[in-house]
Task: inverse folding
């Protein structure tokens, strides 16, 4: 696919639109269907499309393998910290009430941060799955060529 000019041109326009749609899903998830999980998969699909068109090595230059691991950990950490922060401030786990003076502001802040943690985790774990499977396939192909 790397040599197909039409695919490269279409991907150049399509990938930013997919990522913009992912942002829309992420930040409108509390008002409409969507949220962190769906947005994370949309972001990962943009990166996977990039990897399919330009190659895994190019995609790993954009988001390195180690950064994918770090992103997965940071997303879970953000989710957990928001939950524990509610407990530390006198509420229950994932109780957003203590996060701000106004209950409505606390609810919005808590939901946005929790969904952001979910989105980061889902996106990076989906990228990790793709990377691991793609690397495994290339290793198997190299073994087949050596025989």
Result:
């Amino acid at each position: 696919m790397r040599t197909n000019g039409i695919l490269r041109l279409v991907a150049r326009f399509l990938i930013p639109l997919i990522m913009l749609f992912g942002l829309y899903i992420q930040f409108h998830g509390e008002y409409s269907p969507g949220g962190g999980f769906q947005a994370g998969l949309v972001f990962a699909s943009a990166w996977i499309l990039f990897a399919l068109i330009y190659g895994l090595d190019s995609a790993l230059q954009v988001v390195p393998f180690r950064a994918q691991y770090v992103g997965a950990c940071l997303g879970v950490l953000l989710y957990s910290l928001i939950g524990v922060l509610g407990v530390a401030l006198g509420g229950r786990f994932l109780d957003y009430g203590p996060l701000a003076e106004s209950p409505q502001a606390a609810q919005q802040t808590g939901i946005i941060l929790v969904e952001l943690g979910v989105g980061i985790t889902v996106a990076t774990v989906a990228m990790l799955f793709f990377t691991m499977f793609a690397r495994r396939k290339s290793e198997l192909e190299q073994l087949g060529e050596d025989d």
